[in-house]
Specification:
The protein is an all-alpha fold. The chain contains five helices and no strands. The protein starts with a helix and ends with a helix. The relative contact order is 0.08.
């Protein structure tokens, strides 16, 4: 046997083994990443649902006259922030931070907030959350402001 046929025989045997090993590690990496993303998405769903529940409770409380004290509202939002900061996408974190900065500018007095800006900031958060979960935001408005349409009686005035 000459050197060329020996090299061809060795390559014929080793290349499939190397290719199989590389393929295994790539598949293992993809499976681990998918498993992690599935867990993160599951956690995000729960946390985002908690946020939506909190916001809707605030709206329903203000309509029934049982308005929560501003400090209690901020406390609940801080609790949410502690839980979601590890799981939310950078977009959601940035919009939530923008919202908090807006609340800080009002010195914690939610009754002094411009409702249009307030709802737009909240709807941007929810729109980003929906995007995070892979949901469509088609026809929800540029900033997602139509998300609150069912909760606001003077919606048309709000979005103009």
């Amino acid at each position: 046997m000459n050197n060329t046929s020996l090299v061809i025989t060795i390559l014929t045997i080793t290349l499939p083994i190397i290719g199989g090993a590389v393929g295994y590690f790539i598949k293992h990496y993809i499976d681990k990443k998918r498993e992690l993303l599935t867990e993160v998405t599951k956690e995000r769903r729960e946390l985002y649902q908690h946020f939506v529940n909190l916001i809707i409770d605030i709206f329903s409380g203000s309509k029934t006259g049982k308005k929560q004290p501003d400090n209690q509202l901020l406390s609940k939002l801080f609790e949410f922030y502690k839980k979601y900061v590890l799981y939310a996408s950078p977009e959601v974190i940035n919009y939530f931070s923008d919202y908090f900065q807006y609340l800080y500018s009002a010195n914690g007095e939610t009754n002094t907030l411009d409702h249009n800006i307030h709802f737009r900031k909240l709807s941007k958060i929810m729109k980003a959350m929906r995007t995070d979960l892979g949901l469509s935001n088609k026809d929800l408005g540029e900033d997602g402001e139509k998300i609150f349409r069912a909760l606001i009686t003077d919606f048309d005035k709000l979005i103009k």
